[in-house]
Specification:
Oligomer: heterodimer
CATH architecture of the largest domain in chain B: 3-Layer(aba) Sandwich
Structural class of chain A: mainly alpha
Strand content of chain B: 5-15%
Helix content of chain A: over 70%
Strand content of chain A: under 5%
Strand order of the largest sheet of chain A: 1-4
Distance between the termini of chain A: 14 Å
Largest sheet of chain A: 2 strands, antiparallel
Number of strands of chain B: 13
CATH topology of chain A: ABC transporter involved in vitamin B12 uptake, BtuC
Number of helices of chain B: 16
CATH class of chain A: Mainly Alpha
CATH class of the largest domain in chain B: Alpha Beta
CATH superfamily of the largest domain in chain B: Response regulator
Shape of chain B: globular
Number of helices of chain A: 15
Strand order of the largest sheet of chain B: 6-5-7-8-9-12-13
Shape of chain A: globular
Largest sheet of chain B: 7 strands, mixed
CATH architecture of chain A: Orthogonal Bundle
Radius of gyration of chain A: 21 Å
Number of strands of chain A: 4
């Protein structure tokens, strides 16, 4: 009744091509954007902003990148954390050692990561599926090894570069959690809008064609060489920017140990739970993997206070994992196509509500 | 049925959520100080994390059971990090309000908190891990790597080797191999070993082991047959600690010349090797076992009252005792801070007290900690406060102490610390 398509006439090409053709969708998006830019900094505490939302946004950006590659183009990658690591080190080398401007450092981080991504993406031209996953696994190990062992990159035995104070144009010091939040949000929103447009363009359609059947796509004249490598490039670009961003605004250092194989698995988990081939899914998945364990842990902490010494602290710590694992299984059984698909089902339902046929 | 189940779940969730928001009831009544515990009881390193944390919490519980520090009780609560940096930062941000000290319990978390804690004026206490140059208090005012950093420990090992060889002049021409797991932690002592090698004229070579390090045959053939090492330093981690003992036994390399880092000096590291471990030496900066008055007191007053924070069998293990030691140093600092500034205590008061610690042997004896930890004296410049290490040998069934507290080569270590700290300052601008 409220959420409907009938009566909406697309009278121009621009309207037909709009990102959100349905008014309610559009207004909802504006409302969320307004909330993110205005309400969150006003209402949320520093803990929420600096401890939860900033890392959530950074991981969502990385998941979005992986979603282009895996969800849209159908190429599995187990080395995505390493591409984030490449971005983190590139950003800090540019910013801390060569005093490049902050935003240019992030851009550079993306470009360097994209280059490395293309390099490790070349095997995708010959191998597919699980075999490709294993070859990207090699990327994870090789990149970690290079970062630790090449002294120029890591700068010595710690293989860690500390983040200097963040300045834009040498006068605006980005220091408080809210300022860091704005920096993160601006980058993430810009890249999300770009990504949303990208997947509806010729490139995105080519990716989906390759994902659905690469032979058919090739026969239709889509260059596998170009579009597969482009998928690796764009995906690693996003991962690289995310890696640089999280090192700037959250970790306060580029430390190779953060970008380990386990993170690669977590990123893959985010897009599987959130929804492959969905922009929204990347966010939902990142929220699920990054934030849910923290909420479970706080919830159990509340339970722990009441039951007191009946349960030991290490039991509580492990119950968190059990609950989290149980929820993953639950959601995958309820909706194997991810949380984004649940959202779409709801929308389809609302379209006809209250008079379904 | 399904609907009812859903409602019950929802109700439970709401109740739990509401409970999570209620602050601890005890906070309002007594005079307390707040110490959040960033622990990792899950994840790949849980055995270390639970011991380290449990030891600290047991010591705080003991202090509370005896009436607190000058009447002020210590309020502590765990926040699970799973050794994950992002989780650790979240824990810090959630619990930092009024916190007197933070134990990062992970090098990655320590990096991330260094800047935040300095701004929030909360000291970080990290004994035996984290970056070694944090000992330079002028550069890192809020970081406290008490007792011994990796670099001090490495130099103490060389002094111990010199003692065994019969003097520093005997080191000349000797060959020392560093067998290390090839991650930043493993490589951390290479620069200091190179400095020591230049100073004393011994030959030093590193032998990297790719993680997880379950296969070290090639490295050992190199060490024993090609390099013909006189001494081997075993700088492995977790499961890879045990492998060198078996390899050495296979090649007939004498175990009495293998010297482990403190992470490779637990019961867990030697028992799986069986006979092959006999004679193996290891460094440590805190004693293990239960033969210390403070440990006995914990068993009696904390675990006896059913207030323990770890399984009773694990009391006295190496990790546990390190936790007790770190907590004891914190409590001493807290006492110092209250003497000077009174109650309520703030983070910067703690920072002052931690810079002005002087825990003498006599004081250690009063606290029941004698033999568990070396005496400690910090200053504004020196946040380490000692650097001494002890050495022990595995006799096949238990660790036997084979040395007194052995001092590090302070001037060589501090030269490296100053250099590294200067580099940090340059990076931070």
């Amino acid at each position: 009744m409220i959420y409907r398509e009938c009566g909406i006439y697309r009278t121009s090409y621009a309207k037909d091509m709009a990102l959100f053709p349905i008014p309610l969708d559009r207004w909802a998006t504006y409302a969320i954007a307004a909330a993110a830019f205005l309400a969150v900094p006003l209402l949320a505490s520093d803990y929420w902003i600096g401890g939860l939302i900033v890392p959530f946004l950074c991981f969502a950006l990385a998941a979005l990148g992986l979603n282009f590659l895996t969800g849209y183009a159908g190429q599995l990658s187990l080395g995505h954390a390493a591409f984030m690591g490449v971005g983190a080190y590139a950003a800090l080398i540019l910013y801390a050692r060569y005093s490049a401007p902050l935003l240019l450092s992030l851009l550079g981080a993306g470009l360097v990561a994209a280059g490395v991504g293309v390099l490790f993406g070349t095997p995708s031209l010959r191998i597919k599926g699980f075999y490709l996953a294993v070859s990207t696994l090699a990327a994870q190990f090789i990149i970690e090894w290079v970062i630790t062992h090449v002294k120029w990159i890591g700068g010595g035995v710690y293989a860690t570069i500390d983040t200097p104070p963040l300045r834009i144009m040498n006068w605006w010091l980005i220091d408080t959690p809210v300022e860091k939040y704005y920096l993160t949000l601006a980058v993430v929103v810009a890249l999300t809008v770009f990504g949303r447009n990208l997947v509806r363009s010729r490139v995105g359609r080519a990716w989906m064609a390759i994902r659905d059947r690469d032979v058919a796509a090739e026969i239709m004249g889509i260059s596998l060489f170009r579009y597969k490598l482009l998928a690796f490039a764009v995906s690693s670009f996003y991962a690289g920017v995310a890696g640089g961003l999280i090192s700037f605004t959250y970790y306060a250092a580029a430390n190779v140990e953060e970008f380990n194989l386990f993170l690669s698995f977590r990123l893959l988990g985010m897009i599987i739970i959130g929804g492959m081939g969905s922009i929204l899914g990347s966010y939902l998945g990142a929220g699920f993997i990054v934030l849910l364990p923290i909420f479970i842990s706080q919830f159990l902490g509340g339970v722990g206070k009441v039951v007191g010494r009946l349960v030991t602290t290490d039991l509580l710590a492990n119950v968190e994992l059990m609950v989290f694992g149980g929820l993953i299984i639950f959601f995958l059984i309820v909706e194997p196509l991810g949380l984004a698909r649940l959202w779409r089902t709801l929308k389809d339902y609302l379209r006809l509500w209250p008079f379904p046929y | 049925m399904a609907k009812r189940l859903g409602l019950v779940t929802l109700a439970l969730l709401l109740v739990g959520g509401a409970l999570a928001l209620i602050p601890s009831a005890a906070a309002a009544q007594d005079k307390t100080v707040w110490i959040p515990m960033l622990c990792y009881r899950t994840g790949p390193y849980a055995p270390g994390g639970s011991g380290f944390c449990g030891g600290k919490e047991d010591y705080f519980a003991l202090v509370n059971a005896k009436g607190g520090v000058e009447g002020v009780k210590i309020r502590f609560q765990e926040c699970e990090t799973a050794y994950d940096t992002a989780r650790g930062i979240e824990c810090y941000e959630r619990n930092k309000e009024g916190a007197l000290v933070i134990y990062p319990h992970s090098t990655g978390i320590m990096y991330a908190l260094l800047e935040r804690a300095t701004r929030d004026k909360i000291p970080l206490s990290h004994i035996g891990y984290g970056r070694a140059d944090a000992a330079d208090g002028t550069t890192f005012p809020y970081a406290f790597p008490f007792i011994s950093t990796y670099w001090s420990l490495a130099s103490a090992k060389v002094r111990f080797i010199a003692q065994r060889e019969g003097g520093e002049d005997k080191l000349k021409g000797k060959k020392i191999a560093l067998l290390y797991i090839d991650i930043p932690y493993g490589r951390e002592t290479i620069p200091i070993m190179e400095r020591l090698a230049r100073r004393f004229g011994f030959e030093f070579r590193g032998f990297p082991v790719p993680p997880p390090g379950l296969e070290q045959g090639a490295q050992w053939t190199d060490i024993a047959r090609r390099f013909r090492a006189d001494w081997v330093i075993n700088r492995n981690w977790g499961v890879s600690c045990t492998v060198p003992l078996r390899e050495a036994a296979r090649l007939g390399f004498t175990r009495e010349k293998i010297l482990g880092v403190w992470w490779c000096g637990s019961e867990e590291d030697v028992v799986p090797a069986g006979e092959a471990a006999k004679g193996y030496l290891s460094a440590e900066f805190s004693g293990s076992g239960r033969d210390f008055p403070v440990i006995q007191e914990i068993i009696e007053k904390v675990h006896g009252a059913g207030k323990g924070n770890i399984e009773k069998e694990r009391i006295g293990t190496a990790y546990y005792n390190r936790g007790v030691v770190e907590a004891a140093i914190t409590v001493e600092a807290l006492r110092g801070a209250m003497k000077k500034f009174g109650y309520p205590v703030k983070g910067e008061h703690m920072q002052w007290a931690m810079e002005n610690l002087n825990i003498t042997e006599a004081r250690l004896k009063e606290l029941g900690l004698l033999g568990l930890v070396p005496s400690l004296k910090t200053s504004r410049e020196d946040h380490e406060g000692g650097g001494a290490a002890k050495f022990k040998q595995w006799d096949g069934t238990k660790w036997v102490g084979v040395s007194e507290w052995i001092a590090p080569y302070k001037e060589i270590v501090w030269e490296a610390v100053k250099e590294s700290a200067a580099k940090y300052r340059a990076e931070k601008k």
